[in-house]
Amino acid sequence: CAALDPTQFKQDMAALRAKGKIFVLSLGGAEGTITLNTAEDEANFVSSLTTIISDWGFDGLDIDLESGSNLLHGTQIQARLPTALKKIEANMGGDMYLTMAPEHPYVQGGMVAYSGIWGAYIPVIDQVRDTLDLLHVQLYNNGGLANPYMPGAAPEGSVDMMVASVKMLVEGFELADGSFFAPLRDDQVAIGLPSGPSSANSGQAPTQNIIDALDCVTYGSACSTVVPNKLHPNFGGVMTWSINWDRHDGFNFSQPIGDKLTQMNNQ
């Protein structure tokens, strides 16, 4: 395909930002890697990303580091990433939109084990929780969700999986090492789902299940087995991978779920 025209891209992004859209630069993905092994790596990371964000007009960053990133317990990247993110935010005048899209073993998986990838995002989240805008854990490609509220794992695509994921994050949960993950605000949490049949190997949720999960978390209705302790009227919503696959599949995700979120915002 033709190369992207930088000037046109910046103009398009500026026009959409003027309409209230938020743009974050996503770091990672299934094959994405970054290097944060030394103080020099960290300084280069901070400098280069500050420049990219400034030059292109991004609002901030999305941290989507997965298996290729070496974000494991005890690694330099786990230790240095929170500090680096705080430095980038300071360079932006203290106003950076920060999101994270970890796979669920890296977060809720800390209940099952607390080594390797299991719960490896927890220390990172804890150190930036005051400035974290949205955590949308990926509920796909990793099987069901082990949780404290039901025997076994909540199946992918189920209302229980979505509600249990949210409940663990907004109510807190005990980690395998005996420590406790403190609750996030409800506006900091969203449900992360694939947009449809083409976008992930597994985890696609029926539209009605997504709507029911949103109603359960926000209004206390349409719940299945897992029920929140209280209502969460400021809940962050739904993240999907991805707008391109959604278009490919005929907008089967964004149309009904977008209508639902619009309706909720207007109530």
Q: Spatial order of the strands in the main sheet?
A: 1-2-3-4-9-10
Distance between the termini: 43 Å
Q: What is the rounded Rg?
A: 18 Å
* Helix/strand class: alpha/beta
Describe this structure in words.
By secondary structure, the protein is an alpha/beta fold. It is 37% helix and 15% strand. It has eight helices and ten strands. It has helices at residues 6-18, 39-56, 76-91, 122-128, 159-171, 207-219, 243-248, 254-266; strands at 24-29, 60-65, 97-100, 134-138, 145-146, 153-154, 173-174, 180-181, 189-194, 238-241. The strands form three sheets. A six-stranded parallel β-sheet has the order 1-2-3-4-9-10. Helix 4 links the parallel strand 3 and strand 4. Helix 2 (39-56) runs parallel beside helix 3. The chain is globular and about 50 Å long. The protein starts with 5 loop residues before the first helix and ends with a helix.
Write a concise synopsis of the structure shown:
The chain is α/β, with parallel strands linked by helices and 267 residues long. The chain has helices at 6-18, 39-56, 76-91, 122-128, 159-171, 207-219, 243-248, 254-266; strands at residues 24-29, 60-65, 97-100, 134-138, 145-146, 153-154, 173-174, 180-181, 189-194, 238-241. Helix 2 (39-56) runs parallel beside helix 3 (76-91).
SSE diagram, text form:
Elements: H1 6-18, E1 24-29, H2 39-56, E2 60-65, H3 76-91, E3 97-100, H4 122-128, E4 134-138, E5 145-146, E6 153-154, H5 159-171, E7 173-174, E8 180-181, E9 189-194, H6 207-219, E10 238-241, H7 243-248, H8 254-266
Parallel strand pairs: 1-2, 2-3, 3-4, 4-9, 9-10
Antiparallel strand pairs: 5-6, 7-8
